[in-house]
């Protein structure tokens, strides 16, 4: 562990570690001296800490270190150089390295998945050391944006993001678009609707296809969030594809969930499922301007009444209902004030840290379930029986339940 951390810190990283408090954003940030220098200083501290921890060979942490060493030894020299380049560039705030890193963790190729996990581990090590001067409190804030298609989420992000970058924040947007079940493709059109924000050097927009995931977020969205935070983005916005019970997936990876409702769209209280409303920390009525102003105010009053009947998700926060106009900017500064108020509340109470710990466990088991399914389908005995059993199920000669039992028995039988 100490050896590869030393090599990592040596690869293209120079300067000293220096953090300064930014009162406008309320977070510790690397000083203008150099983010690369900050990375080197923190990595040197991690190297020394790892060296001191080596004697505890029976601890789970040491086991993890040994596992990483073994995995690193399996890499070719070219892969090691690639990993070092991406780590150094990512922690130095290079957008190209961030994009390449996200592409790597999104890949289904086994060797790229391995590289991606090693990269993520190094970023997490860096983040832990970076949070030390801040009392180990997270320096970034994650916000999920959900709502039906056409609610104006992308237009809102364009206006909202420009306001935040003007305040000195670095904003990352992970916009997820639905994939076609026929061709497997995705339009990825969110970035085209954020032209001004896409040109802002303090913003990063990453469109990603759902790849068939019902939750409206990809399997690797959670990992992409970590990479964006490692690259210095203090506010990460995750825009999902729609609204419904399946949107609970995004609530398990963000600190705050905002539900967007368009005005004059019918009976919204019937059309929006109760479950997602209970998960929302803020409900935002969009397009509150022109002819839609009065309908927006009416819906806002309805949701305020409805929220009083629902159980709050947080003990420290009462969900609010606001109306905004992305066209005129009306209500957006007030919305940001509520977001800051929410962030301050859960950070002071420790709820933010506890929620993130729970979310990591949830996503660990989600990935286990996904990988177990893949492992099951690739089992030689199971793989050979799947085509014939599928044909029998389709023709009605065999029930799906019995076919599943046959495959599970084949999987559990020792060869």
How is the topology of this model organized?
Layout: H1 2-10, E1 19-22, E2 27-30, H2 35-53, H3 60-73, H4 77-91, H5 95-106, H6 110-131, E3 141-146, H7 153-166, E4 171-177, H8 195-198, E5 203-209, H9 221-230, E6 235-239, H10 248-251, E7 256-261, H11 268-271, H12 274-279, E8 282-285, H13 293-307, E9 320-323, H14 332-349, H15 351-377, H16 380-395, H17 400-412
Parallel strand pairs: 3-6, 3-7, 4-5, 4-6, 7-8, 8-9
Antiparallel strand pairs: 1-2
Helix pairs in contact: 1-2, 2-6, 4-5, 4-6, 5-6, 5-9, 6-9, 16-17
What overall geometry do the principal axes of the alpha carbons give? Answer: globular
Fraction in beta strands: 5-15%
Strand order, largest beta sheet: 5-4-6-3-7-8-9
Q: What structural category characterises the helix and strand content?
A: alpha/beta
Main beta-sheet annotation: 7 strands, parallel
Number of strands: 9
Give the radius of gyration. 23 Å
Fraction of residues in helices? 40-55%
First-to-last CA distance: 38 Å
If helices are DSSP runs of H or I spanning 4 or more residues, what is the number of helices?
A: 17
């Amino acid at each position: 562990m100490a050896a590869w951390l030393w090599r990592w810190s040596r690869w293209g990283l120079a300067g000293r570690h220096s953090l300064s408090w930014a009162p406008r954003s309320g977070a510790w940030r690397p000083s203008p001296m150099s983010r690369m220098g900050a990375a080197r200083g923190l990595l040197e501290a991690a190297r020394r800490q790892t060296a001191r921890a080596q004697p505890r060979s029976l601890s789970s942490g040491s086991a993890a270190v040994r596992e990483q060493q073994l995995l690193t030894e399996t890499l070719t020299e070219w892969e090691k150089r690639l990993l070092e380049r991406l780590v150094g560039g990512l922690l130095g705030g290079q957008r190209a390295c961030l994009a390449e890193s996200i592409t790597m963790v999104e890949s289904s190729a086994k060797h790229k998945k391995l590289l991606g996990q090693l990269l993520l581990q190094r970023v997490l090590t860096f983040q832990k050391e970076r949070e030390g001067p801040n009392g180990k409190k997270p320096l970034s804030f994650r916000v999920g944006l959900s709502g039906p298609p056409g609610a104006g989420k992308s237009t809102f992000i364009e206006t909202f993001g420009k306001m935040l970058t003007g305040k000195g924040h670095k904003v990352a947007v992970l916009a997820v678009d639905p994939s076609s079940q026929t061709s497997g493709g995705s339009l990825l059109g969110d970035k085209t609707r954020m032209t001004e924000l896409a040109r802002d050097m303090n913003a990063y927009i990453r469109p990603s296809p759902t790849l068939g995931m019902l939750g409206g977020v990809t399997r690797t969205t959670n990992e992409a969030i970590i990479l964006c935070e490692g690259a210095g983005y203090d506010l990460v916005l995750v825009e999902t594809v729609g609204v419904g019970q399946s949107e609970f997936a995004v609530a398990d990876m963000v600190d705050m969930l905002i539900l967007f409702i368009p005005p004059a769209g019918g009976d919204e209280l019937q059309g929006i499922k109760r479950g997602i409303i209970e998960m929302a920390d803020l409900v935002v009525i969009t397009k509150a301007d022109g002819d839609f102003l009065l309908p927006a105010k009416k819906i806002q009053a309805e949701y305020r009444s409805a929220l009083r009947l629902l159980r709050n998700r947080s003990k420290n926060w009462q969900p609010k209902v606001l109306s905004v106009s992305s066209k005129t900017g009306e209500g957006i500064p007030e919305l940001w004030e509520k977001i800051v108020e929410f962030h301050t509340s859960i950070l002071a109470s420790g709820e933010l840290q506890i929620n993130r710990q729970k979310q990591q466990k949830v996503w660990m088991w989600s990935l286990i379930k996904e990988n177990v399914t893949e492992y099951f389908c690739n089992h030689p005995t199971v793989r050979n029986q799947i085509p014939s059993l599928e044909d029998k199920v389709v023709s009605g000669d065999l029930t799906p339940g019995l076919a599943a039992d046959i495959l599970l028995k084949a999987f559990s039988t020792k060869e």
